[in-house]
TrEMBL record, chains A, B:
The lineage of its organism: Bacteria, Bacillati, Actinomycetota, Actinomycetes, Kitasatosporales. InterPro entries: Homeodomain-like_sf, HTH-type_TetR-like_transc_reg, HTH_TetR, KstR2_TetR_C, Tet_transcr_reg_TetR-rel_C_sf. It comes from Streptomyces mesophilus. Residues 37-56 bind DNA. GO terms for molecular function: DNA-binding transcription factor activity; transcription cis-regulatory region binding. This is TetR/AcrR family transcriptional regulator. Gene3D superfamilies: Homeodomain-like (1.10.10.60), Tetracycline Repressor, domain 2 (1.10.357.10). PROSITE patterns: HTH_TETR_2. Residues 14-74 form the HTH tetR-type domain. Pfam families: TetR_C_24, TetR_N. Keywords: DNA-binding.
Amino acid sequence: MAYRKTPAEISRLEAARERLIGCATEVVADVGWSQASVNAVADAAGIAAGSVYQHFPSKAALAVEVFRRAAGREVEVLGEVLGGAGDPVERLSRGVDVFARRALENRGLAYALLAAPAEPAVGAERLDFRRRYRALFAEVVREGVAAGQLPPQNAEITAAALTGAIGEVLVDPLAAADENATQQLLADLTAAALRCAGAPTA
Amino acid sequence: MAYRKTPAEISRLEAARERLIGCATEVVADVGWSQASVNAVADAAGIAAGSVYQHFPSKAALAVEVFRRAAGREVEVLGEVLGGAGDPVERLSRGVDVFARRALENRGLAYALLAAPAEPAVGAERLDFRRRYRALFAEVVREGVAAGQLPPQNAEITAAALTGAIGEVLVDPLAAADENATQQLLADLTAAALRCAGAPTA
DNA sequence: TGAAGCTCTGAACCATGGTTCACTTCTTTC
DNA sequence: GAAAGAAGTGAACCATGGTTCAGAGCTTCA
């Protein structure tokens, strides 16, 4: 044996893989899944198309990884806010705000995660993550009901309405560009969400 | 001139075109846009693939026509209910019920219209129709606010939440198969919708 | 430095599925 | 019935874009 991967070499490969995922994420956020060809992604990462296949067995596998990383971050952040400090209604309010704010800050990515046309493998992953978003919202709604802050209700449906509303706001260039309009939009959205869960209006 | 289309021939062609659209709609409802190849659709209609191009210049044009017909029917029905008799809150309640009920009755088609992966031309059409659904809901919410039945709110966002909630319920096999569960689901969904718009709970 | 084995390249390859077209079949008119 | 012309056929064509692979260039180790 005249060659063995040295630790440095291993971490270099690992870094290349991470870089590829990062660049692919940017491309997807920019132009959507359908336009993110292997060549486009490889170009963005500064490698040849063939080299992609050293890190992933197929384009679909790369796409799924990109999706999981990005969606995983959102689930994590949302989970921390919804499961954090404060009473259930406060947490719900902050959760909606954080979810929507992050989405508006990176619309391209949010659109890719929530709604953009994608290959079946990504579609399946998306269903799974939407279920997770819903489960997180549903849990805090249930806590609110248990604490007597919210009226009895089907928490799953309320949760669906919340993700649905946020999704709709993003799909379409509904939110204006300037800061004031964005603030207003977030306030209106949060108000609708609280009403939807049955929280007394402020 | 030894040949001229006779009226009977013209209506036969028209009928063939309608039949093609109908069969294509069924195929799409059954297997989704991505699996609805020209061959599959032509087979379903009992004609050759090439014959499709006598009625439509491209597959995309056929797909758009299929979408418009089906989505147009839904918009029309929803519009009639929301713009019909009764006070705004009653109409909103019935509108949500009708929209969701029709969707649950033909899930495949509803999924195709609201969420299934589709080619860009259909995606653009979908955005347009989602805007129409929202506009219809928003109008009745505005009327409710004007009538003092609903609190002041951003009607567009409430409308987005309504379509979003219904969409979420459909995307996922959330609704159970039996009749009782469906009734309960519709009741819960309507309740969430009314809360979302700020109507006093029953 | 040389041998061995790996990474990287990018042009060729190939699968998929929409589209075309030479040909057949049917309809109309004389 | 025959000519003219449209509708209908389906196999061949072609564009797109994911995947492969033979060779070039590196890295490791003796």
